[in-house]
Write a structure and sequence with these properties.
13-stranded antiparallel sheet, alpha+beta, 33 helices
Length: about 950
């Protein structure tokens, strides 16, 4: 085999994977080597690819600005000039802020075990935790839910857009942040190689090859070409076999890291690795060029085209000012697993910064010898002339630390490492000299904030890097440039003591396609999709909050987000106290109240499909029988009465349904039809006849009743996407009529479950039951509806939302609520032990509930539990409302009165116009301003 050389191999655009066999890999490398020799003979170092609007330059022309240790990409790994290889992974951060401490400790211990696994000397593991202003990814995912919006509720969409604009403006102002964690592993390569392929030896070999091919007459040309093709550019070259061996050794280390690391990781390869590398080196870049298709291309030109200009204690990387803050002393006396929470979850650190944590592996034998030497030195300094040992407090502390470390690395479960911890801080790109001064002041303030946060960790000493050290450290802190060479910032310790300094936590990222947008108190945006069964298998949502804490407002906001974003969505709500009244009125839905003097019946016998002559299903028959048994005061367990009524109801439908046909006049069965058939039905047994006569007598008093024995009123006949049944309006009805109407309302809600569209798809449906304690006390028949919706919801695309002031109100329904997929807890009063136990909340989450704080007119906080078991996620949400949403959803009595007062003074205004005026005049409501009523003179001026 010809002794050709390779360097700077790249497979970014060829789709070559690590899994190829040795033979295929050898063929590719041989081809790359031949192509590289051909380019060298032709002269120059042309890369073969360039950015739009940028002139292609040779390698030596581009290196004048700065240098890089990375010369290429080889099969998903970076190839360094000294022969090292680096691989990268994107690491999934875990939302464990509100989890048990044991879970966080276990992950920290697992990371320590991964770091302690035997590794070659000189290996470097780097964690990069990058945080900066939110890019709006959650909003983009949110906008993908409703599609073109043609199948969503237009009025709800307009109201929702006002709230969405609030979050969009916050994203534009940089008030939200997002974070990503990546892992970079650099494996040292064999430094010694065949001297034929470097320096003067490479020149002689190349020149002899040229002469052999073209004869001695070509000697001047051969010397010129060989000199141009073999400059000493600091790149280690190896024979092909040596390079393959080093590459395979590096891959073994990479696979070891993947197996041992407890974090969920995705290997960066091809385009993603090139993108991360390019954008990490080119701060001004707005796009990423396509990497070269051929192997063997030196990529340093593209990485080094932006200069580094050091100006005092900051560096201008391209047009972006940057600075560094380093940790000089680690946490004392030990590092806890949650040591970095003050840094990770600080809502005020929403500027762009990157936490860089390096772990460098020295030779363990040499490290142990250095420790022994240092221990002897400390002991000798403590021995006085008389031979007695007199140790100063400092010497005793140093000796204790050294001996502890030495004992730890004696066993096989520990390793000694050198750690570097620094934070790179970036300021926005200045547009002018004055703007630059502002950016530098911003950079100074950001560094001071970081130093303050780091020093709050017990024992930590951190400071901003001085100009001289910044020049030496910054270039080595760039993506992929981490080096095991010492910098003076190393902290030598055992890995178990330092694993807690790896940032691995974040907040819950939310659903992939959220319809409800909110944020966290730590400054990250998130969103909820109540229909997402991948993260939330149970369709039941329980909302608990003390009176006046905003639970009804939260539900109204959730309802509006569903109608505004989920195509064909339907909402059926059972309300008390007019909580959802203004909202349903503003959206043009049906606000259904019941007045004794204005009969508007809901006929239980009616159902969708009756007008076409379609026979009822068993659920419909069951609902009718249940109401008849309620009116006849049949005791539970009376199977004979149930069988009689079921038989007669079926016969009534057989007689009456065929009278209907599509396009004809609708004929609804009523109670009178049942009474007539019950009186004449030919039962065979005398006992059955007697029981039927008793039932007839009990039901006869309702014959012709305007609320019980009448067809469905036109107000209820048409389909509506949003129905709110106000059950407080039933208080003036007799008990039996009140219970019957409540049962009919329940039947209407049940019939909304599993409704099919014309294309055969299920209609997304939300069933809402507010003030559950009243339902349980007065309308127990509705409990059957709730249980049915909870059990059928997962298959029929239904979400059941239950709301009450205390979790104990759900007693008797614990088989449903204890398995609720989502539990939303607002500010609480009293004992929460049952709730915490059923929701399986940690002590941290329980403490979080006690710490909930609401700001009137600004935001409300809720602790949210989604999922169950090992897949459970707990997060604290902070909900902001736009002024229009606030005045639509508010249940504050003074604000409700203000809304009613404006409507009374301006009867020519629609509900939407009333809300619009209030939103402009009092954008945070009345309570936030300490007011109890509006300024009516301002309303007169507005007229």
């Amino acid at each position: 085999m010809e002794p050709t050389t390779i360097f700077g191999l790249t497979a970014a655009a060829t789709g070559l994977g690590v899994g190829f066999g040795m033979g295929a890999r050898l063929m590719r490398i041989q081809k790359a080597a031949r192509d590289e020799l051909r380019r060298r003979r032709e002269g120059g170092y042309e890369t073969g690819f360039e950015e739009e609007g940028e002139k292609s330059e040779t390698y030596h022309q581009s290196r004048g600005k700065r240098d890089s240790s990375i010369v290429g990409i080889c099969e998903g790994a970076l190839r360094h000039a000294n022969g090292d290889y680096t691989a990268a992974w994107e690491v999934r951060l875990e939302p464990t802020l509100w989890s048990d401490d044991q879970k966080i400790d276990a992950r920290c211990d697992a990371l320590a075990r991964m770091l302690a696994v035997e590794k070659p000397a000189g290996l470097l593991i780097q964690f990069r935790f990058s945080s900066g202003p939110d890019s709006g990814r959650t909003i983009v995912n949110h906008l993908s839910v409703s599609g073109d919006g043609r199948l969503t509720h237009p009025e709800a969409a307009r109201l929702h857009a006002s709230g969405l604009s609030l979050h969009t403006a916050a994203v534009g102002a940089g008030r939200y942040r997002e974070s990503v964690l990546s892992l970079w592993v650099r494996v040292p390569g064999k430094r010694k190689g065949n001297n034929e392929n470097v320096g003067f030896g490479a020149f002689i070999t190349n020149a002899l090859g040229e002469i052999k091919s073209n004869g001695w007459s070509s000697l001047p040309t051969a010397l010129r070409r060989s000199w141009a093709a073999t400059p000493n550019d600091g790149v280690i070259r190896r024979l092909i076999d040596d390079e393959l061996n080093e590459r395979e050794k590096a891959e073994k280390i990479f696979r070891l890291i993947e197996r041992e690391c407890p974090l969920k990781m995705t290997r960066l390869a091809d385009e993603r690795l090139w993108e991360a590398l390019y954008l990490g080196h080119r701060q001004n870049a707005q796009s990423v060029p396509t990497p070269p298709a051929e192997l063997g291309v030196d990529i340093r030109k593209y990485l080094c085209s932006e200069s580094l200009s050091f100006e005092g204690n900051h560096v201008m990387h391209g047009d972006h000012p940057a600075a560094m803050v380093s940790m000089f002393t680690p946490p004392q006396p030990f590092v806890t697993a949650d040591a970095l929470r003050g840094l990770i979850f600080n809502a005020y650190l929403n500027f762009r910064h990157t936490v860089v944590v390096d772990f460098i592996y020295p030779d363990q034998t040499k490290a142990a010898k250095k420790l022994d030497k240092r221990i002897r030195e400390v002991r000798r300094t403590s021995i006085r002339g008389d031979g007695r040992v007199r140790q100063s407090p400092e010497a005793r502390a140093a000796l204790a630390d050294l001996e502890t470390v030495r004992d730890a690395i004696t066993g096989s479960q520990e390793a000694l490492v050198q750690m570097r911890f620094s934070v790179i801080v970036y300021a926005p790109r200045p547009q002018s000299l004055r703007d630059k001064n502002e950016c530098l002041r911003f950079l100074d303030g950001a560094c001071e904030q970081l130093i303050t946060v780091l020093r709050k960790i017990p024992g930590v000493d951190a400071a901003r890097e001085e100009p001289e050290s910044l020049q030496a450290l910054y270039a080595r802190s760039l993506v992929g440039e981490a080096s095991p060479n010492p910098t003076g910032r190393e902290i030598t310790e055992v890995v178990d003591s330092l694993a807690g300094l790896i940032p691995t936590e974040t907040v819950w990222g939310g659903s992939k396609r959220p319809h409800l947008i909110c944020c966290t108190p730590t400054g990250q945006m998130t969103g909820i999709d109540f229909f997402d069964r991948s993260t939330n298998p149970s369709p039941v949502v329980v909302v608990v909050g003390a009176s006046g804490t905003g639970k009804s407002v939260f539900i109204a906001n959730a309802i509006n987000s569903v109608l505004a974003n989920v195509p064909r969505a339907r909402v059926k709500a059972i309300d008390f106290g007019d909580s959802f009244g203004p909202h349903v009125d503003a959206l043009g839905g049906r606000h259904l109240r019941f007045n004794v003097d204005d009969p508007r019946a809901i006929n239980t016998w009616d159902y969708k499909g009756l007008e076409k002559g379609e026979m009822p299903d068993e659920i419909q028959k069951t609902l009718v029988v249940a109401e008849l048994m309620l009116l006849a005061r049949v005791k539970p367990g009376d199977s004979l009465a149930e069988d009689i009524l079921s038989t007669v109801v079926t016969e009534v439908y057989r007689n009456e349904v065929p009278r209907n046909s599509e396009g004809g006049l609708k004929r609804e069965p009523t109670l009178s039809d049942l009474l007539a058939l019950l009186d004449s039905y030919p039962f065979e047994h005398e006992m059955v006849k007697g029981r039927a006569a008793t039932l007839l007598l009990a039901l006869e008093k309702y014959r012709g009743h305007p609320w019980i024995d009448a067809p469905t009123h036109p107000d209820f006949a048409e389909e509506s996407p949003y129905d709110v049944f106000e059950l407080d309006s039933l208080e003036n009805f007799p008990t039996d009529i009140r219970e019957a109407i409540a049962g009919r309302v329940a039947a209407r809600v049940v019939r909304a479950i599993g409704q099919l569209n014309e294309d055969g798809t299920r209609t997304p449906t939300v069933l809402v039951f507010d003030e559950f304690w009243k339902i349980k006390a007065k309308y127990s028949i509705i409990l059957d509806v709730i249980k049915r919706g909870a059990r059928q919801g997962r298959k029929d695309y239904v979400v059941t939302m239950l709301s009450s002031q205390a979790y104990e109100d759900f007693e008797g329904l614990y088989d449903i609520t204890s398995n609720a997929g989502t539990i939303i807890v607002g500010k609480q009063i009293g004992d929460n032990s049952r709730l915490i136990s059923d929701a399986n909340l940690s002590e941290n989450a329980a403490a979080g509930i006690s710490a909930i704080r609401n700001s009137v007119g600004v935001y409300a906080q809720y602790m949210v539990k989604i999922g169950s078991g090992s897949d459970q996620t707990v997060e604290m949400l902070q909900v902001y409302l736009s002024p229009a949403e606030l005045w639509t959803f508010t249940t504050n009595p003074n604000e409700r009165n203000a809304r009613a007062r404006v409507a009374a003074l301006r009867p020519d205004w629609s509900p939407a116009e009333v809300i619009e005026w209030l939103a402009k005049a009092y954008p945070q409501g009345l309570a936030a301003y300490g007011l109890v009523e509006i300024n009516e003179s301002a309303l007169a001026v507005a007229g």
